[in-house]
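Notebook entry, structure prediction.
Reason for the run: the old model in the group folder had no record of what sequence produced it. Starting over properly, with the input documented here first.
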Amino acid sequence: MSSLLLLEAGAHSRVISFDLGDFTWARSAEAWLRANYSASRFLGVVFGDSSRTLPAFKASHADFSCDVMFIDGDKSYEGRRAQLRLMRAMSYPGAHLFFDEITSQQCMNGSVPLEHHSRECRTRDALRLGYWPA
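New structure, fully documented this time:
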């Protein structure tokens, strides 16, 4: 779970996670994190569709801002872009952003021909070429 990694990354890090909750282990992982980290460090998990839970959280926590974001949700281009917009509204200027599986859907599902895979899916140019524009 990425929350554990972020909690271990710094002695003073504080983490809140937004998770669809579609895997049975998600609630067990939250319980383990609650048992092993103080409430001031692990702020919990907000379960549900982030297209709804992120705006609701922002509306009820107007002063909340993050300096690091890790986005691992919707795998579609439109979904990732929407999550980025939502998180941008909840972050400090210059916040660090990490995406899980930052590449195109075509690179992920194998529909890019093998002879083009290295050029289109493994290079630093993937962002410049428009696979996941900011």
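Summary: Residues 123-134 have pLDDT under 50 and may be disordered.
The old model has been moved to the deprecated folder.
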